[in-house]
């Protein structure tokens, strides 16, 4: 049957909507091959039977199969593209290697282009009010407060803040710091947020 | 220098700057810190909070954190020492001191802006500037210029005047510094600040309610003063209640109620709470053989069956629980007990049992002087225990620890009194907690040792010294003034200092409260002898 493979491909992609899986190079190649075969058959039939209208139905069926394949493939690629877009917002401009492996070469190329575009857009933001760009990916949801209260769990040593202040992180000292400064330290387990 | 306007000159100066917050380990300081943290959170003032236990810790904490810091706020520490001399700060650093330990060091009072005292206590009789400071250089220069007979006479005259002035200065300073005592709770001062910046919330009310309860439970202030301190709080609580009657069932709120002045009785059994109440237990003479029968007699007079009194208060008969206050009040005079009920603050929480301010005082004490937990960790727990919303895990753990501590204190007091370990030495009596006893671990800090000492003294007219083993080979010595429950001014601060210089014992006067010192255990007897000689 025509178009079976492409349905398999879509079903596979549909199974995990939220995550991205390996680009199915093999199946896509097979589908394209099938389309080439269909196209050649159609060419042959169309050339041979300009007079004989009995074959027209066959050609038409093949053609719609061809178009269906094309449409499904595009849908596959488009949904992947949307997923890659969200990857940029979640991971930043550098993808972790395991995620990188899931993309095909051209997808990766698209990703880097998208990334550069986004970066240059973010740099251009707010220049008229004196900021040199705003990192839009930092707070996808508005934060509850700009500062959070943290408790230091280990003797970490000195930490220099963005505004140049130096603070000493010592065990069991409490600090009230800008959220952006603390996040990595919280992830590392040096600080603990106090609710 | 005193801050004139607490909002503009103190709080608004801090806006937009990084602040170093140094907080002493005591209940009032922790409550004050909670209020200040709430204010800082509202205004996004970033701060670093370091708890400090004594003067040397204060020094290291300042040295470690002074980079790029312009404003330092000290809560219940640093007021009684010359900050500029001890910390050697840069000139642009400003210290805001809110210390309920009195008397305030005279150099801090007359500092020209580097040290700013947030609250001026009217009770303090601070000597005038001209009486204690004089420009010496000027006079020296004048002395050299003049000569001849008249000149010599003038010089002699001046010297005499100077000597008289010096004597006068000495008496003034002596009168000023001879007693150490406590002023208005810092949390109440900060409550005023919160009210003036319209940021009064239940958390701030609760924190300052706990602080006032602490001052009266620990006898830091005389009962009349405690009542006056809480006056503002009464007003704010009433106003808040009127304000959000509709929200009362949904959020935690502080209310004022008449309540039994028994520690943790809601978390305990009635019998245990009665036998561990610092106001009742000494009067019931529980250390004696007849003590337990007296307690049973009291319970019988109250009409509480033993079976009920011995089970968890929460599972007690509802009728009995309701009649507890009246029963206590009617039964107490029969046994010549002080009035066991008081109007106190209670935190009503939705869907959770209410918390009493008095209980929270003991919870915080148990956290900061925990037997096994390091002090700094206990400090964090104590802050968490002051939280008003949510199920308070830290509070419950603290309550369990506090029960243990109270039991240890009670058994310590009973053994001390029943085996006649309370010794008389001239003008004062003293007792020593031996190293290795099971209770020694609990009373190694000044708070619980003070609790035990007050219990032993039981309001008697003699001053009392208590000593407990501290870190290896040293011991803690704590002085309690006579009649501490009426006039809590403490003479031991100055006495310890003098005895130390006279006896030559290497005493460490590191505690912010000057009536608590540490000294090597081997030299304790020598020191006590010197103290006896001094006070006789």
**Adjacency order of strands in the biggest sheet of chain A:** 4-1-5
The averaged pLDDT of chain A comes out at 85
Based on helices, strands and strand pairing, what is the structural class of chain B?
Answer: alpha/beta
Arithmetic mean of pLDDT of chain B: 88
The percentage of residues in β strands of chain B lies in 5-15%
Q: Which regions of chain A are unreliable across 5 or more consecutive residues at pLDDT < 50?
A: none
List low-pLDDT spans of chain B: none
Q: How helix-rich are the residues of chain A, as a percent range?
A: 40-55%
Number of H/I helices of chain A: 6
Largest sheet of chain A: 3 strands, antiparallel
Subcellular location (chain A): Nucleus
GO biological process, one term (chain A): DNA strand elongation involved in mitotic DNA replication
Main location (chain A): nucleus
Pfam families (chain A): PSF1_C, Sld5
Provide a compact summary of the structure.
The complex is a heterodimer of chains A (195) and B (536). With 195 residues, chain A is mainly alpha-helical. Chain A is built from 6 helices and 5 strands, in the order H-H-H-H-H-E-E-E-E-H-E.
Write the layout of secondary structure elements.
The complex is a heterodimer of chains A (195) and B (536).
Chain A: H1 4-15, H2 25-48, H3 56-91, H4 97-100, H5 105-124, E1 147-152, E2 157-160, E3 166-169, E4 174-178, H6 179-188, E5 191-193
Antiparallel strand pairs in A: 1-4, 1-5, 2-3
Helix pairs in contact in A: 1-3, 2-3, 3-5
Chain B: H1 6-14, E1 19-24, H2 27-43, E2 47-52, H3 55-65, E3 71-75, H4 83-87, E4 94-98, E5 101-102, H5 106-109, E6 115-117, H6 129-132, H7 136-145, H8 148-177, E7 181-182, H9 186-196, H10 202-217, H11 223-229, H12 231-243, E8 253-260, H13 270-275, H14 281-284, H15 291-302, H16 306-309, H17 318-331, E9 341-349, E10 352-356, H18 357-368, H19 375-385, H20 393-418, E11 423-425, E12 428-432, H21 446-457, E13 464-469, E14 474-480, H22 492-503, E15 516-520, H23 524-535
Subcellular location (chain A): Nucleus
Subunit structure (chain A): Component of the GINS complex.
Main location (chain A): nucleus
